[in-house]
Amino acid sequence: MIKVGIVGGTGYTGVELLRILSTHPEVELTAITSRKEDGLPVADMYPSLRGKVGIAFSSPDKAKLTDCDVVFFATPHGVAMAQAPELLAAGVKVIDLAADFRLQDVAQFEKWYGIPHTCQDVLKEAVYGLPELNRDAIKTARVIGNPGCYPTTMQLGFAPLLKAGVIDAGSLIADCKSGVSGAGRKAEIGILFSEASDTFKAYGVSGHRHTPETTEQLQRLTAEPVELLFTPHLVPMIRGMHSTLYAKLKTDISNEALQALFEDAYKDEEFVDVMPFGSHPETRSTRASNMLRLALHRPGNGKTLVILVVQDNLVKGASGQAVQCMNLMFGLAENTGLQHVPVMP
Amino acid sequence: MIKVGIVGGTGYTGVELLRILSTHPEVELTAITSRKEDGLPVADMYPSLRGKVGIAFSSPDKAKLTDCDVVFFATPHGVAMAQAPELLAAGVKVIDLAADFRLQDVAQFEKWYGIPHTCQDVLKEAVYGLPELNRDAIKTARVIGNPGCYPTTMQLGFAPLLKAGVIDAGSLIADCKSGVSGAGRKAEIGILFSEASDTFKAYGVSGHRHTPETTEQLQRLTAEPVELLFTPHLVPMIRGMHSTLYAKLKTDISNEALQALFEDAYKDEEFVDVMPFGSHPETRSTRASNMLRLALHRPGNGKTLVILVVQDNLVKGASGQAVQCMNLMFGLAENTGLQHVPVMP
Amino acid sequence: MIKVGIVGGTGYTGVELLRILSTHPEVELTAITSRKEDGLPVADMYPSLRGKVGIAFSSPDKAKLTDCDVVFFATPHGVAMAQAPELLAAGVKVIDLAADFRLQDVAQFEKWYGIPHTCQDVLKEAVYGLPELNRDAIKTARVIGNPGCYPTTMQLGFAPLLKAGVIDAGSLIADCKSGVSGAGRKAEIGILFSEASDTFKAYGVSGHRHTPETTEQLQRLTAEPVELLFTPHLVPMIRGMHSTLYAKLKTDISNEALQALFEDAYKDEEFVDVMPFGSHPETRSTRASNMLRLALHRPGNGKTLVILVVQDNLVKGASGQAVQCMNLMFGLAENTGLQHVPVMP
Amino acid sequence: MIKVGIVGGTGYTGVELLRILSTHPEVELTAITSRKEDGLPVADMYPSLRGKVGIAFSSPDKAKLTDCDVVFFATPHGVAMAQAPELLAAGVKVIDLAADFRLQDVAQFEKWYGIPHTCQDVLKEAVYGLPELNRDAIKTARVIGNPGCYPTTMQLGFAPLLKAGVIDAGSLIADCKSGVSGAGRKAEIGILFSEASDTFKAYGVSGHRHTPETTEQLQRLTAEPVELLFTPHLVPMIRGMHSTLYAKLKTDISNEALQALFEDAYKDEEFVDVMPFGSHPETRSTRASNMLRLALHRPGNGKTLVILVVQDNLVKGASGQAVQCMNLMFGLAENTGLQHVPVMP
C-alpha cells in the first residue's frame, strides 16, 4: 500500500483527491493537513465522505508527512515549493496540483504568479505531469508539476497537429469555458450562486497564467514559434471544461487523414476518447471521471480546423490526472482507481 | 456471473442501471431492449458510456431475455406486468422499477395508474423491494416491485417512529422536493430547461400516486390507521430528493431517545446514515451514490418532530436500490457494486 | 418629486431598490451611502444600471440624508435603529428593510438578533409595513419596519383563514423555500455557486428569526394562541420564494367557501393574485415583479388545507414592498413604479 | 394607438413580445393567434401575464389580422411568407421574427432552411431590421426581417471595424454562446433540464444558418470578401448571449483609436453600450432589457482584437429589437416601451 499525504485538503481539488483515493485499492490515506481545521474529521466538513474517509485534518506541524510515500499539494501557489525540499530529502515523492513546478521558465512564473520562485533546484528536476505527452519522464520523477486544467485540454487538442506539422503554430486560438468549481472554494463575491448562475462572461481576456504554461509545453512539440491566444470564460455549471480550439491548416490534408492523426496519437490512451469526426462532445459525458473527449470539425471544408475538447476540470483537469501520475510513479497500472463511469444525467 | 437484461434502457433509470452495472463485478450485461433504437450501440446514445458499455440496443423480439438470470424493467407502468409471466416461467427473476408490483391493493393501483392490473397472480408473490424494511422477503423473491423514489424517503424516515409507537400515525405530513430527473427523459414542455430552471413549484398537491404506495407500506408497521399528507415539489437540480417529514409525538420522549431509536434501527445499514441530531443534510452529499441520509429536529422542543431525509432519486430512489435487491436475491454481499463515493461538489 | 436616500446600497435589496426607483416617476434618487465604496459610481459596481443610475456611492458622513424626504435602510440589522432618530428629527421618513422595527416584542428581538435594541421609543411608533394587512397605519407612519420575505408569504397565506376563524391557530406549519439571493450578497462559502447549485437543503430548522416576527403579526388577527412551525429551505435559483402552508380546518366548510374567503380578502389588492382552486403557482410567474400569487388545495378532501404562496423574495419580499409602503406614505397611487410584468422565461 | 397582432404567441419570442407590448404606451394588443390554443386566455398559459394581458388566443381564421396596423410573426420559418402578401395588401405592416425575410440570397435561404421561398416579391422590398446599421430603411419599410440573435451580436461587434477597414475581413471568427431559451419552447429531449443543465457543448459547428445571414449583412459594410467562421454553443442559462469575436488587425492602430472607433459608432445609440477597454461584460447585465453591451481586448498587445458582446437573446436578440423596429416604422421615439432596467441578480 502506498502511504499518501495531502496538504491542503479543504478545497475542491483536495476533496476530489479524497473521493478518488478513498476507493483506490493500492492507497492508504495517512495524513491530511489543514492549519485551520486541525482535529476536525474530514467527513464533518464533507458529509459526502461520511463512512468513506475516517481520518481527521491535522495541523501541518503534527502531520507526519515525511512518513508518507507521496504527498499531494492541493494548496495555493507557493506552498509546495516551500515544503518540497524537506519531503524529497526524506524520500517522499511530491505531486503539486498548483503551479510551483509547472513552468520551467522562472521569469514567466514570477511574472504571472507574483511571487519569487524559491526552489529552483527542485524545479529543474520537476516533471510536467501530462501522461499522454510525458509518460516516461513521469515514471521516474520525484516531483510532478500537475498541469493546469485549461492547459490539459489545449495540449491534448493541439498536440497531434503540431507534431505532424500540419497547422500554423503561430496563430492558435483557444476559446475555453470552465465550470465554476475551477475558481476554487474561496469566499468571494464573484463566484456566489447569485452572481455566477444564469449568466455567462469571459475573464482574464487580456492575459492569463495558463497561456505561458501551455505555450511552453506546446513549444516542445514543434520547432516553429508557437503563438497562442487563450480566452477563458465562466460557465454556470459546477464541473466541466469545454475548449474550442482553432488552428489554421497549412497543408492540403483530408479530413480522414486529420481524424487518423488523432486516432493514432491516442489509440493506446484509456483516458483520451477521439470521437467520430463532426461530433459535439458535452462536458457532462466526462462528469466525475478521468476521461477527456475530443472531436474535429472543418466548417465549410475550409482552412481552419476546429477541435472541441471536454473534460471534468476537477478530475482529468486536476486530481484525477494527479492520481494518474502517481500510478505511473509507483509502477501501478495507469488506470488503477480511476475507472469511474461518468455520471449522466 | 449473473446474466442481466434491461428492458427499456433509454430513460434515466435505465442509463443509471447501466452506469452501476457496468462496473458491478458479478454482472454480465446480456441484453438491453429498445423498440425504437434497435441496433444502436448504447454508447452512441449515451457518450458517457463510451468504452464502458459495449452492447447495442435490440428490439424486444430479438433480445433473448429468457436466457438472463434477472431482468430489470426500466419502463413505463404496465410493461413489466405484460412480460413478467413468460420470464418467470423461464426461471428468470424480475425487478420492476415502475409501479406494476408495488401496490398489493389492486383497486388503488387501477385508480392511480389508470390501467387494469393484468397480472394479479404474479402481484401476489411480488415483494416490495425496500431492503431496510423487507430484507428477508427480498432474498427469496422471484419478483420485486422496486419502491418509488419519494416512498423510499418517507418510509425510512417514519418507520422507526411508527414501529416504536411514539408518533400519531394519523397526522403524518411529508413535504418532499425532487430534482427534475425524477420526471424522466420525456419530451415534455414542462421539464424543459427554460421552464424548470430558476423556478420552484409544487405539483400533484391534490393527490399523487406515491401516497397510496407509502400508506400501504407504512400501515404494515403499525396497528393504528395511517393518514399521510404528501406534497411533492420540483427543484431546479438534476438529481436529488429532500423530504421534510412532520410527525406529532404522542408520548413524552427525549431527543436523545428519539435519536437512539433511529441509530438502533439503522445501525447495520450501510446505505442509511443517521446524522447527528439537528443536522441539515444536503442532497448533494448523496449524489450518484446509494446513500440515504437523515437527521432529526425538534423545533422549540415542542410536540412536532421534523425528520429531514435526502437521497439521490436515481440511485437509492431507483436504480441503486434495484441493484441492492438483486444482490440480495443472488446471495451477494448487499453492497456489491454499490460503493460509489458521492460526487461533491 | 420625492427625494430618496438609500443607506447600504451594495447588497441585493439595495440594488433592487435602485432598479425599481430608477424608473419610478415620482422619485429623485438623491443619495446612496456605502462606507467602503465612497466615490464609486453605482453603475461601476452594477453594470446593469449603466445609463440608468447616474449617482455615486458616498460615505455616510458626506451623504446629506437629512435633506431627503425618505431614507431606505438596506443594511444589516442594527444600522437603522442607530440612525433613525436623527433622520426623524429632521423630518425624514424611514423605511428599514432589516429587522430593527419589525418586532414590537423587544425581548424576542434581542434573543433572535443578538443585539440590544437601542431605539425603543422609535420602535413604539414604528409600523409593520405589510400594506395588505396594515394599510391605514402605513399611510400615516414615519417609520416602517419592512416585513421579512418569508413572513410576507406566511401572513398573506394564513390571514384570511385566521380572521375567519376556520383553522386551528395552534398547529400551523409553514414549509418554505427560498432562492439564494435571500441570503444576501456576502462572501460566504455556503452560498458559492459550487456549494449551492444542483443541491437542496433545509436550514435553521430548529429555530429561525422569522418565526417570532410572523407569530407576532398573526397573533393580531386572532384571539386564539398562534403556534407556528416554520421550516426554511434553500433552492438553487436566484430569486423566488415558495411557501407551502398547512392548516387544520376546525369547521365544516366547503372548498368554494374557502376560495371565496381568499377572493374577498384580496379582491382590491393589485399585488395579491388568488389563483383558481387547485392551481400550482410557480415562483417564476412573479420574477422581478411585486406580485404574490397563491392557490388553495385540499388533498383527499380532508381536514388539512394546503396553501401555496409564491413571490419574488427581492421584490414583494423586500424592495418592492418597501416602495409600496413609500407610495402609501406619500399619498401616491400604491402601484406607482411597481407595474413590472414578471420576466418569463 | 397602434393596433398590434401577433401570429404564434405561444413560444418564447411570442411571450416576450407580450411582456414588452403589454406596457408599451402606444400599443393596443388586438389579436394573438394560435391554432392549437384557440379560446384559451393568454394568461392561462402564461400566469406571469395574469392581470397584464386580457386577451385570448384565437385560431388564425378567426383573428382579424387585417384590421391591425402591424403584425408580428413569432412563428417557425415559412409562416410569415405565406401570410405576408395578404396583410400587406390590406395595408398592414409585417415584422417577421423568423428567417423568411432576412436573407436576400434566395439560394442561401433555400439551402439552409430547406424550404422553397414562395414570396420573393415581398422579400425584395423587405428590410433587415437592425436599427443601428439600417435605421433609415426601417423607418419606411412595410416588411421587416428581424435579425437572428447571434447575427445581431456579430454585426454590432464587427461593424465599426469593417467600416473603418482596419481588420482582415477574410478571417473573422465568432465563438458564440447562447442561453437555452434560444432553442425555443419545443418538446425536445436535447433541451430538457436534465440534459441541458450542468453541462456545456457546441452545436452546429460544421455549419449554421446564421453564418450566411451574418455574412450577407457584413458584406454590405466592406468591399473585401468577408469570411466568417461561426461556432455556436449552448450555455446552461435561460436567457443571455455572449459572443467572443476575433479579428486580425491589418493596420497599425492604437487601442485608444480602436476604442474611439466604437464609441463614435455608437455614441447616439441608446441600446448599445460601449464599455471601457478591457471590460468583461456579463450577459446578466442585459437580462430582460434591450441593451447590448460590448468591450474590446487586445491580448498581449498583439495583432488580434477580441470583442466581447452580450445581450439578452430574447430582447435585443429578438422581441425587443422587433419592437424597436416597430417604433421606427410608426414614427415613435425609438425607445418607447423599451426602457426596462436589466434584472440583476
Describe the structure.
The structure is a homotetramer of 345-residue chains. Chain A has 345 residues and is α/β, with parallel strands linked by helices. The first copy, chain A, folds into 2 domains: 2-125, NAD(P)-binding Rossmann-like Domain (Rossmann fold); 150-312, Dihydrodipicolinate Reductase, domain 2. The first copy, chain A, is built from 11 helices and 13 strands. In chain A, strands 8-9-7-10-13-12-11 form a 7-stranded mixed sheet. Chain A has a 6-stranded parallel sheet with strand order 2-1-3-4-6-5, with helices on both faces. In chain A, helix 1 crosses helix 11 and helix 7 runs parallel beside helix 9. In chain A, 59% of the residues are buried. The mean pLDDT of chain A is 97. At the A-D interface, strand 7, strand 8, strand 9, strand 10 and strand 13 of A face strand 7, strand 8, strand 9, strand 10 and strand 13 of D.
